[in-house]
Amino acid sequence: MLKNYFKIAIAVLRRRKFFTFISLFGISFTLTILLVLTAFIDKVVGDNYPDKKRDRSLYITRLEEVGKGNMNSGELSFYFLDHYAKSLKTPVKIAVCSGFSGTNTYINNKKIAVNYKYTDAAYWDVLEYDFLEGKAFNSKQVDNAEKIAVISEDMKSEYFGDVPSVIGKYIEADNVKYRVCGVVKNVPITSYMTYSDIYLPYTVSKGNYKDKTYRGRYIGILLAQSKGDLPKMHDEYEQMVQRIPMESKDFNKMYSHADRYIAAYVDTGNEDLSGVVLVLTIISVFVFLFMLLPTLNLVNINITRIMERSSEIGVRKAFGASSKTLVYQFIVENIILTLLGGLIGLILSIIAIYIINSANLIANLDLSVNFTVLFIGLLVCLFFGLLSGVYPAWRMSKLNVVTALKAQ
Amino acid sequence: MIRLQNIEKVYRTSTVETLALSSINLDIAKGEFLSIMGPSGCGKSTLLNIMGLLDAPSKGNINIDDQKTDHLSDKQLAAFRNKKLGFIFQSYHLINDLQVLDNVELPLLYRDSTAKERRMLATEALEKVGLANRIKHFPNQLSGGQKQRVAIARAIVGRPEIILADEPTGNLDSAMGNEILDILLQLNQKDGTTIVMVTHDENMAHKTHRLVRLFDGSQVQ
């Protein structure tokens, strides 16, 4: 039976080549966009270098202070994390680091844009960077505010050129010279919590990290002994935040959470607006709208095609096909069409991803079509096929046999 | 085999009511070859469609092989048609996108049969109508007579007890038309298939067992 439906499906596609082209173009173009988007999200969310202990980590990325007519929200101060977060009992280690900032440096009269961030020594224990040369700075070097830096491999080749080793050499950033102690494998900018070109001890920061305000430019990463400790660690932080005194009379409520990676990544900084819900909503709406047009297009084309096949439908009904069987046949034919479009979309996605990677639009973000992407692509095809086939199939099943046979 | 009791068919639109059939009572015996004749628009095809359970009467009962059909669901009707009935249409109604063999196999798709069984039965049916050498052809590669023979093969492939033929020779010249009638006569005489045929051709009608005439939706003979 399926072989018969497949033959019919292919024959119908060949009959009206222009309509087929329109349908396949719509499906494959939509799927290409969705697959590339999926590959992007998969990379951003799934790629865990250097955050290999992500499954037992929580992230403190925001603090929100609310008062009557006042609101202050953003990253935390070094003081807050050092004084409060580091007092927690459940974590086995707590890392503190700043977000990255941009500056320029000059080498041989050539301007190089540089991103740098500040970290403590624990940062290098919590995260697992791949060191291509040297090693991280330690707590003693941090305490002594040594002008020492870990740099990325891209930074190494851009600043120093093609040299075998740069350990012990000096790199200048923000008008200060730092001695290179380590070179790490690149982190893509989409991993914004761990990305940088240069990593420096927080003690060399020009900002006053000792300032006892709550808000600043830092985030905290809490590492648990095991995955099972995450809820306990989360709750301990929540309870601790409730006990912290308000920073000023302008505020009467304070919110801060230690969240899993994705929740922390998309945190809106607004207590009433969940980042995860917002991102999922935006993605869902985008996907829905993006798929709506080709779906409607396909529904329209399918209805036209069904009316052209009235005679065939009448014959099938006359010879024993029930309405349910015909609906099933039509949906199978439609799924064959969408799978074909999906295959073309997959090929186009591979080409698009190759072009995106070659163009290096986002440095070090190498997209790929992996099993997750393929699986989602297949689901989208099937969903597409069902969605655009159900209404036309239902219309067709309602055709009166005699009326259908009269149509030529 | 087929019993029609007080069959009436009315077509209603928002403004007009048309009485297509009125008080039709007909008994067709097993193995009988019946012709139905009448002027255009007298209700011949409507009667055939009702007999074939393709259309429901407005009033009356249909009994096929001692089974009442008025209470059957859409699914049950489809299964009943598949098992008991075969259809031959004036315009052949072959599926142009399928080869001859696939067209003939069509009724068997809606039964529990394997691909091998379907292939075997379809080939047998095509041999009966003398078209075994056209298996891989498409309908648009065949003459009118050949198309109708494929349609006959399709109608008999499931070995139905009853064949309903709506002007099977209407689109053919007299020579081809006679060939088609010969095949139907052979099916009736050799296999005992009950055949009901709508025709305009008086000569052909007289070759069958019985002739029923309709006029303005009523039986006149």
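The mean pLDDT of chain A is 86.
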